[in-house]
Amino acid sequence: MIVAAASPPISPPYLNSNPGSFGDRNQLLFKLQKCKSIQHAAPIHAHIIKNGNPNDPFILFELLRICSRCCSIEYASKIFQQTPDPNVFLYTAFIEVLVSSGAYFDGIRTYFQMIKDFILPDNYIIPLVLKACGSALDLKSGEQIHCQVMKLGLSSDRFVRVKLMELYGKCGEFNDAKKVIDEMPQRDVVASTVMISCYLDHGLVSKAMDEFRLVSTKDNVCWTAVIDGLVRNGEMNYALELFREMQMAGVKPNEVTVVCVLSACAQLGALELGK
């Protein structure tokens, strides 16, 4: 599947802090933000533990974001387990590490642990954990989170809606996915592309093309998702036909589009040789 709807950027924990440490904290945050690996961040973290406030939520948040970029579950787990009373921001940052590293079920379990700790979810953590549910095909957990979304009044949030639709689509529950997208005030190209990709992932080419034709303004991501899906479903000629249509529409292909088209050409060539 080519396309994945983006989640909202996670915001840092806006908490009251010691004003006297503000300058030092900013310097440490600046150093951490420049770190490209855990090996670079570890000495700074050690310095913080020895000389500063090891439980500063801003510092912990930035450390967890480094772990997310580096897919370092082990280091992130140590940080999180040693954090007293983590708030929703730190839970979000830790779950992001798990999800970005492919530990979807661990991310889902961590979310429900947060709920047990009576910490209310927000519109940042919900799309993240819905992404985990969709990737893990964990429909049951996703449905529970959907109920929480309704109770918390978060169903109007665009990111939440798109991730709900993606969850149901990935799990093959297309009636529920269709209901979510139909309830959106505006059916934008991102939501439609996610729906199209889910149809193609399940081999429903006709339904995918029906949805594709409803999209008024198609970007190169939308075109590429359809071309890729057609290739994956063995529709090589259809994929090349759509590529020509894309060019006629004046939409510039990206690198992924070109790879998909070359794959279609290669497979058609192999079929001709086989004959």
Automatic annotation (TrEMBL):
Quick one: a GO biological-process term for this protein?
RNA modification
| InterPro entries with a match to the protein in the record | PPR_At4g14850-like_plant (IPR046960), PPR_rpt (IPR002885), TPR-like_helical_dom_sf (IPR011990)
Keywords for this entry?
Repeat
Q: Does the keyword Iron-sulfur apply?
A: no
PPR repeat windows: 157-191, 219-253
Q: Record's superkingdom?
A: Eukaryota
Instruction: Please give one Gene Ontology molecular function term for this protein.
Output: RNA binding
Kindly give the PROSITE patterns that the UniProt entry links to this protein: PPR
The record, for Gene3D superfamilies, names: Tetratricopeptide repeat domain
Keyword Oxidoreductase belongs to the record: no
Looking up PANTHER family in the UniProt record yields: PENTATRICOPEPTIDE REPEAT-CONTAINING PROTEIN, PENTATRICOPEPTIDE REPEAT-CONTAINING PROTEIN ELI1, CHLOROPLASTIC
Q: Can you name this protein?
A: Pentatricopeptide repeat-containing protein
From which lineage does this chain's organism come?
Eukaryota, Viridiplantae, Streptophyta, Embryophyta, Tracheophyta
